Amino acid sequence: MPPTEKKQPGGSTLGEHLSLLRAATGLTLRQVEEATDKEVSNAYLSQLEKDKISKPSPNILHALAGVYKTSYEDLMERAGYFGSGLSSNKRRAQVATFAVENLTPEEENALLKYLAFIREQRRK
Amino acid sequence: MPPTEKKQPGGSTLGEHLSLLRAATGLTLRQVEEATDKEVSNAYLSQLEKDKISKPSPNILHALAGVYKTSYEDLMERAGYFGSGLSSNKRRAQVATFAVENLTPEEENALLKYLAFIREQRRK
DNA sequence: ATGCAATGCTAAGTATGTCAAGCAATATAT
DNA sequence: ATATATTGCTTGACATACTTAGCATTGCAT
């Protein structure tokens, strides 16, 4: 058993979890740094595993999730992102309104602008 | 007809997009601050919309996505998270669908018509 | 006109994520 | 035993997200 540390209800802290994941794959800090293509430095990963950093950037977690083959969203939650509200949002299901396929960014931009125009007109 | 404004080829910046979203809902900076329960200050939102901040934290984007009823993942991509593009490619076409939910039938109709107009124009 | 509230915005300050460089300890090899 | 490499880790230094307080206009009332 590893030495006891603060326990969060429902599991380990992010650092413990990351440490465990790395142990499971048997990689060294620098090997992970390599595997992430220098996106996560070994020094930083060390700090992460020792819980010295509260909220690493999503880029970091994304890269680590890739190396450890675990869920990026899970790491985000363990890092305390969106911690206050309910976990999974079902907003995506509602986006179906006006789901025009193959909308280019320029078109979306133009439509947003036009919508703002319409609503501004109606506002008074 | 909204004024034509050309800036970035291939789409607007995160700031422009956020600005358009807010315009579409007709909210003021401080109203958004209220709506996010002080999670996004009006001053900060202003900086965001003027592209003075490159990578706002996911918390911010999550809160804004909630207020504007748009896709959080879309905002994350626009903010350049996971920008290296390996994992984002397959989602592209689908996320590009228009992501505003509060459309009235009349608005949807008007937007469809306007979209048709735009595409007609480009066809030439 | 005049006071006043609201709107968008800026400036300066604080906090913190992130990195580069380097150190102590352990292992490995000659 | 000595040298070399590898491992985990710490320590500054730096970049930047984010806040608080305030300013300049504009609109809205009286």
By secondary-structure content and strand pairing, the structural class of chain A works out as mainly alpha
Seen as an oligomer or otherwise, the chain set is homodimer
Return the string of H and E elements of chain A: HHHHHH
Give the DSSP E fraction of chain A (strand runs of 2 or more residues). under 5%
Measure the end-to-end span of chain A.
68 Å
Largest interface: A-B, 38 and 45 residues
Helix content of chain A: 40-55%
Mean pLDDT of chain A: 73
Shape summary of chain A? elongated
As residue ranges, the low-confidence spans of chain A are 1-11, 85-101
Query: What is the count of helical runs of chain A?
Result: 6
**Radius of gyration of chain A from the CA trace?**
21 Å
What is the compact description of this entry?
The structure is a homodimer of 124-residue chains. Chain A is 51% helix and 0% strand. Chain A has helices spanning 14-25, 29-35, 42-49, 58-68, 72-78, 105-122.
